[in-house]
Amino acid sequence: MEASSDNLAEMAKPLPKDMSHHFSDVTKARAPNKMKEFYKYFQIPNIGQLAGGLPNAQLFPFDTLEAQTARPDRWTPSPNRPSADSPLSSQLAAMSISGQATASHVVVPHDAPTSDVMKKIDLATALQYGQANGYPPLLSFVRQFTRDVLHPNVPYRGGPEVIFTVGSTDGMSKCLEVFTNIWVEGKNDIRDRPGMLSEVFMYSSVLSQAQPRGVQVVAVEMDNEGMAPYGPGSLEDVLANWDYSKGRRPHLMYTVTMGHNPTSGVLSLERRKEIYSICSKYDVIIVEDDPYWYLQYPSAEIEEAKARNLAIPEPKQANTLDKKSGYPFIDSLAPSFLNVDVDGRVVRLDTFSKTVAPGCRMGWITSSPENCERLLRVSEAGTQQPSGFAQVVIAETIMGPQSEASAAFAARSPKDKLTFNGWKMDGWVRWLAGLRGVYERRMNRMCRILEENSYQLKQSTPNRESDADWGVITKTQLYDFQWPRGGMFLWIHMRFETHPLWKAAGSKGNIINGTALSTSLMIFLTRKPFLVLVSPGLMFSTTPQIRNERGWAYFRLCFAAETEENIDACSLRFAEGVQKFWRIKNVKELEAILDEANSLHTEAMTDVVNLGSWMGC
Q1: What kind and span of H or E run contains 388?
Q2: pLDDT at 416
């Protein structure tokens, strides 16, 4: 009876809408790869293989693949619902590695005895040619995790599909290929120019992907939470008042909604519903890039209020949807756009880069079956699936060893043994919760140090002789910031208008403006004794106008990349460097720093600590 009720509920859901009118001309022309379609016959048990051009697996030069891997409980989680009354900061700072064993041994055999392709984890299959959607055992696990745990409330019938990518950058590249035509200035009609919406500050690598295709990236205003649905410069404002002389009204949106890069905001469920409603109204495809979805910090709002002597905010429930995953950690997080995607217009990008390692070059796309089918055609003609080495090691780590591998390992001496049963779904969720705990503790520590140094105090003597026994203290704000609600970054607003040389006359008739001060400070911080590198807001500005008007006023600091021992020292050196920079009163000293910026070579910065993470997401 229960199954019948579930079936009736599923059948009552609407089918996802047809989005093929958004497909590019090349995408519409793509046909399935005939040889890839043929692969389904390769999986017939005991089939004689005379068809495919596959090298013989017995000739692969690897007998096993072995690794020491972490146990899922290596890192201590942070609370899902922190209490305002508890000394959370000290608790977070004290937590580190758990007291349990922190390593296990993984063995991937050459041949696993099972004929079930969803459970067959071995080198003979992982290193062989395969289907472009991914290695079957790992794809099966990720698909179940995505549909049942991450996004159990997808409102269209049949639910989403999943295909693998070579990381989120590859996933975004495929999205641009599927949803935009190439437009060339001077060759194509301006009325055909495609547009893509994004926040006023965005992950800059996507700009480098979109712009060579002629895609016009259109900035949408944002606040501390994320993209603004209504108001001046908002999503509704941009779309309702679109100037068609600039090209087609944008039909594609790129957004990082959880731990926004670079601003660190987390988009609430209520805000998602508002944005989704507007996208549905104007028929916009939403590409939701969420490499930081598991890094949402419930302590940030509380600790920020404590540090600033503000009223402690009431706790909020991030996920108020009906269906839950059953994992308290997952259910405490703000849910994806997929959970309100009635139309089937959301394409979500996930990655193993932040949960395992960037070098894996593995991620996955979750979207409607129609969208995934078109995206898969791009993979078949290009990257195909990620590296078999990476896929099989992750599959073995998460899903557990096969019987042959266990038997071979059992024959080893007790000294060499470390039992391993695989993380399974529970272990994977536990690993993610532990990672959140590590990064949340780092975030809190960096924020406390920056909070304590955000003002510069100066003491001076009163002008009147009658007040000679008194001292005058002036308090200058150097920067302000919101404690990150998610992600790996702290977005800091530099108050350059308080600097002694703000708008001062330069020696060449120029005016010392925000860009000059921002560039000078960045270079100044790379010098001894400060030796820290930060990412300037200029590089995350969506348009040249945003860059010139306000991009210079921000820096992005990464609290993820540095070692556990260095994060406090680096944060303090940044704060001390800013304090010292505000004491520069000579224009020529500042111009000398700018001259250095113009002739800077990477070789001269080998000892600099990187709080910028320029090369990563």
Answers
A1: helix 388-399
A2: 47
- DSSP sequence for 197-249: EEESB--HHHHHHHGGGTPEEEEE-B-SSSB-SSSTTSHHHHHHT--GGGSSP
Beta bridge partners of 266: 258
CA dihedral 600, 604, 608, 612 (to 10 degrees): 30
Q: Are strands 472-477 and 479-481 parallel, antiparallel or unpaired?
A: unpaired
d(CA 47, CA 598): 65
Q: How confident is the model at residue 417 (pLDDT cuts 50, 70, 90)?
A: very low
- From CA 362, how far away is CA 383, in angstroms rounded? 11
Q: Does residue 420 have a pLDDT over 60?
A: no
Q: How many CB atoms neighbour CB 522 within 10 A? A: 20
Q: Which helix (H) or strand (E) holds 363?
A: strand 363-367
pLDDT tens, position by position, 585-594 = 999 999 999 9
Nearest to 292 by CA among 489, 160, 424, 153: 489
Q: What is the band of 232 on the pLDDT scale with cuts at 50, 70, 90?
A: very high
Supply the pLDDT for residue 601.
46
For strands 346-351 and 363-367, give the pairing: antiparallel
Q: Which of 264-268, 454-458, 508-512 is the most confident on average?
A: 264-268
Axis crossing angle, helix 299-307 with helix 424-452, rounded to the nearest 10: 20
Q: Over the stretch 182-230, which tens digit does the pLDDT of each residue have?
A: 999 999 999 999 999 999 999 999 999 999 999 999 999 999 999 999 9
Does 51 have pLDDT greater than 90?
A: no
SS3 189: coil
- Could you give the 3-state DSSP secondary structure of residue 567? helix
Q: Which amino acid is at 407?
A: A
Beta strand extents in 320-362 (DSSP E only): 346-351
Q: Which two tokens mark 322?
A: 């009906």
SS3 content of the chain, % helix, strand, coil (to 5): 40, 15, 45
**Residues 158, 16: Cα–Cα separation, whole Å:** 9
Q: Kindly list the distances between the CA atom of residue 104 and the CA atoms of 70, 112, 391, 572, in Å, as whole numbers in the listed order.
A: 6, 20, 18, 37
- What are the C-alpha distances in Å from 44 to residues 32, 49, 245, 283, 392? 21, 10, 57, 43, 21
pLDDT at 491: 98
Residue 517 near residue 581, CB atoms below 8 Å: no
235 and 245 Cβ atoms separated by less than 8 Å: no
* Centroid of chain to Cα 298: 18
Terminus-to-terminus CA distance in the chain, angstroms?
48
Six token digits for residue 431 = 């690993």
